[in-house]
C-alpha cells in the first residue's frame, strides 16, 4: 500500500532556505562592519560603512576609544561613512558625534558612562559638568551684568537648535541654556561681546532751592512706578547732603531725562521768599528749635569767616498747632537746615517694659504660758505672776467681785473659788498661728526711645506728721499736719536703644503695702524699692534684685526659782516662738516696638488676656446678678483697635 507525503515532509524543504537566509541577514551587517573598519600599525582607524546599522558603529567606536555607552532603545537606523585617510582616536570620536548629530541623536556624559539618546530628550538629561567633546549636551547658566537678559533672548533664539533650550531669568539677570557644547561655546562668546557697559556716566546735579532728599525720593518712586529695575535699565540715584547735590549714574538718555526733571522740581517759590514753612511728621517742632538755632549760628559764623561780611539774621520759630517750623534765612542756610531736619524728623522706636514683682512669705508662731492670781481679800491682789508682752494680762481678765471673768483673747481657763475669802485664778494661754502670703504684681509700660515714663497704681494714704493741742486750757485753733503718700506699685523708666537691639534702662521700681495700724503713729507699711541702670537685649528677661529672708525668734519668760522646777516649773513659764520666711524677686523684660506688626502682637496678647478674664468673671457671677450686663472689652476682628470701642 502506497501512502502520500506527510505535512512535515512537505514543510522541511521550504523551512531550510528560510533559516539560511535569516542567518545570513543577521551575520552579513556585522561582518560587513568588521570588514569596513581597518586598523593600521599606529592604531589609526579607517571607516568605510555602507548602510551599516548604527549599533554596529557604536560598538566599533567603543572598541577603539575604550568608552562605555548606554544606548537608548529609540536609537535605531543605518549610517554610511566613507573616510579616505586613517584617523586617530580623538578624530574618530568627533566623526562619531557628527554622525549622531546628523541622524538626530546626542551624547550625554555621566561619569564614566556616555548616554546615547534622541535629541528631543537630550535637554532633559543634559549635564551641568564639563563636556568631553563638542557634541555633548550640556546645561549651563550664563550671568549677564550690563544688558537685560530679556533683550538677549530674541537675538540668541535663532542660534539655538529646535531641540535646544534657551530661557531668561530676569530677577538675577542670567541666561539658562541647554545645547551641544560646541554651540554653547559660540553663544557664550557672543554674550561676552554683547554684554558690555554702555554710555553710563555720573552726573552731579546741584539743588539750590528744594530738598535734595525729597527730590531723590520722588525720582526713586518714579523709577519703581515705571518698572525700571533691571540692571541694563536701572538708573542709580545718590544724594550728597554736604554739597546739596544729586548724583545720577546710568545711560545718557535716562540721565538727561532725570536732569530735566530735577531742574523743574528745583524751581524757587517766588511767593515764599526767604521764609519757609516745614511740616514735621514725627518730631515736635518746639523741641527742634533750640537745636536748629545752634546749627544756623554755626553756619552763619562759617560763612562770615569765608566771605568777610555780615549775613542776615536767622529766625526759627515753632507753630505748635500745626507742628511746623517757620524758618526765615538765606536759601543756602535753609537748605542746610532742611537736611538736618530730615535726619531728625524720623520715626522713633518704642519700648514696652514688663515688670514682675513676686513675693512669697510664710510666718508661723506659737505661744504657751500660765499666769496666776492670788488674793487674800477683795481689796486687791496678794500675788500675781505676769509676763510682759504676752498679750492680755491676768489682772484685766479677773475683776474682783465679778462673777464672770472677762476673757479677751487666746485659749484661756480660769480656776479657783472666786466667791471665797481667798480668791485665786489662773490664765492659761496657748496660741498657734500660721500665715502665708503670695503676692504677684505685673506692671507694664510703653514709652518712646529716650523718653521718661511712669506708671503709678497706688492708694493715697494720710500720715500724721504733727499736731498742736493743750490740756487744761481751751485752745482756740487746735490742728494737726498730715502728709499723703502713695502706697502701691510705682514704675519709672527711661529707655535708650543702642546700636542693634541692646537697650539701656534707667529704672526706679517701688512696691509698698500697708501691713497694720497703730493708734499713735498711724499705718505701718512695707516698702521695697529698686533704683538701677541695666543693659538688656530685646526680649531678654533680667532679674533686677531680690530678697531671701529667714527669721527665727524664740523667747522664754519664767518666775525666778519656781520656773526652774522640773515639770512643775511649766506652770510658772511663758514661751513664744516665731519663724518668718520671705522670698522677694523683681524681674523685668523690655521689648522694642519698631513697626505696627510688633505693636499689634504685644498689644493683642494683653487685650485678649484681659477680655478672657472678663468673660470668665461674667460666667461665674452670682445668680442674683444674671440680669445685670457685665462690662466686657469688644471682640477684635481687625488688626487695628476699634474706635470708638463698640461690638
Structural class, from helix and strand content?
A: alpha+beta
Any low-confidence stretches, pLDDT <50, length ≥5? 6-12, 14-35, 228-232, 400-419, 639-647
Tally of helical segments: 12
Fraction of helical residues: 25-40%
The count of strands amounts to 25
Cα-to-Cα separation, first versus last residue: 120 Å
Q: Could you give a short account of the major beta sheet?
A: 6 strands, antiparallel
Using only CA atoms, what is the Rg?
Answer: 52 Å
Average pLDDT figure: 75
* Residue share in β-strands: 35-45%
Give structural notes:
By secondary structure, the protein is of the alpha+beta class. Helix 2 packs antiparallel against helix 3 and helix 9 runs antiparallel to helix 10. The strands form 7 sheets. Strands 16, 17, 18, 19, 24 and 25 form a 6-stranded antiparallel β-sheet that branches. Strands 20-21-22-23 form a 4-stranded antiparallel β-sheet, with no helix packed on it. It has a 3-stranded antiparallel β-sheet with strand order 1-2-4. The protein is built from 12 helices and 25 strands. A hairpin with a 4-residue loop joins strand 21 and strand 22.
